[in-house]
From TrEMBL:
PANTHER family: DIGUANYLATE CYCLASE DGCT-RELATED, SLL0267 PROTEIN. This is Response regulator PleD. It comes from Duganella phyllosphaerae. Keywords: Cell membrane, Membrane, Transmembrane, Transmembrane helix. GO terms for biological process: regulation of DNA-templated transcription; signal transduction. GO terms for molecular function: catalytic activity. It is a multi-pass membrane protein. One of its GO terms (cellular component) is plasma membrane. Gene3D superfamilies: 3.30.70.270, 6.10.340.10, PAS domain (3.30.450.20). The chain crosses the membrane at residues 54-77, 331-350. The gene is pleD_8.
């Protein structure tokens, strides 16, 4: 019945589970142990951590949502800002490149005008060269050095001051060819001066004669490490950590904040970054790439018109976006604060929302500890919690009624068992006694308090039967109780004082709290057995005379014959009949006849040995089984003795009366295959005794 209640609960409560978020409340109800009888089985507990968990969930949700929104917004802003910064950087770089181009063109134009003014004598002597330079002071300002070369590029004369000149004309042959062929100034690839060791470039302008033939080359050199023109470019840098640089289209570094890189080739460095590779391949504009130091930077590239140079700039993203990163941190802090405020508000809201549920929990707790009745649960609120409370009330009322019914039923069964005339014993699968009624106390002598929990086998099972008992308990334990039940068997049990108690056993089993128990009614049949024995005895006695009857005679003779044959001992059977007994009946009445029969039986009993059996087998017919008698003369003597004992007058109806008897005697011999054959021979001998005149005996041949 309790199980049915729980099943009903399972069907009713899901609607509340769906209605309320406090599923744990309902689970607590479903988890209630149905076998608890005395206490209120339904219990509800509102987990204390529920508020904390819900608040935590809200805080996390708000935090995550705010952070995602902030993060996405900043991401979009960063993307736009990156484009702005990149475009700005590229515009700045393009401006620097244009200025550099303009300055290079100005130097080329200067060289071209100087070349027109160079006298052939300047190439012929150092003095002529010096004179020429002296007359053109601008050349000293614009170039680190001014030099004249012959057509092959061999140095003729320099201005003689800080000479920077071509260190390997052969290596620059292609460049010289380009200068000669073009007839105009060209910037050389960067090189290291073999005189000063400084990194330098030279701008060469062909010098032609009157016929337009190139007679010499006029070169103006620039020190890459000390050039105001390049320093202007270097000064155009973004932020504190950004910088500008120049390299040729072949990858040779022309200008770089790190002077050790000058004249080095970027393409020969291990793993040049992606932006550099793109720039060498012709890319112009800005892009993002990870530099050699591992930092993400914005790179911009712009090619020059007046030289095979690429002007570049690098701006580390960490610095470029420092304000954005700061904003991101502030955004996260704002999100955390927002989440904390939301959590606090949620906490307050949950506390308010849970108040009625807490009240419900409090009521149920009070019901459990007995300080309140279930009536406090009766519906009081017009909302779902009121419905839940009402449902609890109904449920608990039904369960209380069910439990009361069970208690009443149990009390009835206990009362019946206690008053049962038979011993009732139950035990667990391990044999431990769990029930012992008053009749069991009487039958076996043990008090209930002394036996509960003890092994039944030790108390009432006789040692000889313990094997069978254990087999039965095993079968019970294996669930084969059906084989043992529905049978009433007679067994012997043991009383506390040691004597055996015959009992009739009825087995059964019950299931309680998920466990099976063996039950047994044990009916003490001591008195019944005695009564049965008495009945059996009565069935073998002649009621009139009190001696053995025909049934007893036949059983006794059967046993005696078997014993005589087995032990090879003699046996004699006497068949007796009262002479003319009918006349006694007829003259004195039936009662007098009975009196004669009784006296006759008594005299027979008095004249035989205790081991001999005297029986009345019909009206006035008697038999005597003589054990240990095998000789005819001994049999004759016994017969004679009996005949004589009967001759003594009987007192019948107050008067003496002469009674005689005839006896036929047969001795057991090998021809008597059955007791009946022996009887037949004795009967035949009796017939002969009658025929011989009665009041005597005859021996069977
Ligand atoms: N009083 C009395 N008479 C009985 C009882 N059972 C049998 N009888 C009578 O016993 C008599 C037996 O007679 P029988 O043995 O046939 O003849 P008998 O008169 O004894 O003559 P013989 O045997 O030839 O000497 C019958 O009349 C029976 O009615 C009994 O229990 N009580």
């Amino acid at each position: 019945m309790l199980s049915a209640e729980v099943a009903r609960l399972r069907t009713v409560l899901p609607q509340y589970i769906n209605t309320y978020w406090s599923k744990s409340v309902c689970y607590a109800i479903l988890a209630t142990a149905p076998h608890k009888k005395r206490t209120m089985a339904v219990s509800v507990s509102l987990p204390r951590s529920l508020k904390f968990r819900m608040t935590l969930v809200v805080i996390l949700l708000v935090l995550v949502a705010t952070m995602i929104v902030t993060w996405v917004a900043l991401l979009l802003a960063e993307r736009d800002m990156k484009a702005v910064i990149g475009d700005q950087q590229f515009a700045l770089l393009s401006s620097s490149a244009a200025q550099l181009d303009a300055q290079l063109n100005a130097k080329k134009l200067l060289l071209a005008s100087l070349a027109e003014a160079v006298p052939q004598s300047a190439g012929a002597s150092a003095a002529g060269m010096l004179e020429f330079v002296r007359q053109h002071p601008i050349a000293r300002r614009e170039f680190r050095n001014l030099a004249l070369y012959n057509r092959q590029g061999d140095l003729l004369h320099t201005q003689g001051d800080a000479i920077a000149t071509l260190d390997a004309p052969a290596r620059l042959r292609a460049y010289l060819d380009q200068v000669r062929a073009g007839g105009k100034a060209v910037v050389s690839p960067p090189f290291k001066s073999f005189l000063t060791g400084a990194a330098a470039v030279v701008i060469m302008q062909p010098v032609t004669d009157a016929d337009g033939r190139t007679t010499m080359l006029l070169g103006g050199s620039l020190d890459l490490a000390d050039s105001s023109m390049l320093e202007q470019v270097a000064g155009q840098r973004s932020g504190k950590t950004g910088y500008s640089f120049i390299f040729t289209k072949d990858g040779v570094v022309v200008q770089h904040p790190d002077r050790s890189l000058l004249l080095g080739n970027l393409t020969e460095r291990a793993n040049p970054n992606l932006a550099t590779r793109r720039a060498l391949a012709g890319f112009e504009g800005w892009t993002e790439a990870v530099g050699k130091d591992g930092t993400l930077s914005i790179y911009s590239y712009k090619r020059l018109q007046g030289a095979d140079w690429i002007v570049g700039a690098r701006y580390p993203v960490a610095e470029a976006f420092a304000p954005m990163i700061a904003m991101r941190h502030q955004g996260m802090i704002a999100a955390a604060v927002f989440a904390a405020v939301a959590g606090f508000m949620t906490w307050l809201a949950i506390c308010a929302m849970l108040r009625p549920l807490n009240l419900l929990r409090q009521h149920i707790g009070e019901i459990r500890n007995g300080s309140a009745e279930i009536a406090v649960l009766q519906r009081s609120r017009p909302d779902e919690i009121g419905e839940l409370s009402g449902a609890f009330h109904q449920l608990m009322a039904e369960r209380e009624a069910a439990q009361q019914a069970i208690r009443d039923s149990e009390a009835l069964i206990s009362s019946i068992l206690e008053r049962a005339p038979d011993a009732f014993v139950s035990c667990a699968a391990d044999g431990a006694i769990t029930n012992w009624n008053a009749a069991a106390e009487r039958t076996f002598g043990w008090r209930r308090a002394d036996v509960l929990g003890r092994d039944i086998a030790e108390l009432i099972v006789p040692p000889a039967m313990r094997g069978a008992h254990q087999a039965g308990m095993r079968a019970f334990g294996e669930g084969n109780m059906g084989r043992l039940m529905n049978a009433r068997v007679r067994i012997s049990a043991v009383h506390r004082d040691g004597h055996e108690v015959p009992v009739e056993l009825s087995l059964g089993s019950i299931r309680h709290a998920g466990e099976y128990y063996a039950t047994a009614f044990l009916h003490d049949i001591t008195e019944r057995l005695a009564f049965e024995a008495q009945l059996t005895q009565l069935a073998r006695i002649d009621p009139l005379t009190g001696i053995a009857n025909r049934l007893c005679f036949e059983e006794t003779l059967q046993q005696a014959v078997l014993r005589a044959r087995r032990n090879r001992v003699p046996l004699a059977l006497a068949y007796l009949d009262i002479d003319r007994f009918k006349a006694i009946n007829d003259s004195l009445g039936h009662a007098a006849g009975d009196q004669v029969l009784c006296e006759f039986a008594a005299r027979l009993g008095a004249n035989v040995r205790a081991a001999d059996t005297v029986a009345r087998i019909a009206g006035d017919e008697f038999v005597i089984i003589f054990e240990q008698v095998g000789q005819a003369d001994e049999a004759a003597r016994l017969a004679d003795k009996i005949v004589a004992a009967i001759r003594a007058p009987f007192t019948v109806a107050g008067s003496p009366r002469q009674v005689t008897t005839s006896i036929g005697i047969a001795l057991l011999d090998g021809d008597d295959l059955t007791p009946a054959a022996l009887v037949a021979r004795a009967d035949a001998a009796l017939y002969q005794a009658k025929h011989q005149g009665r009041d005597g005996y005859a021996l069977a041949p």
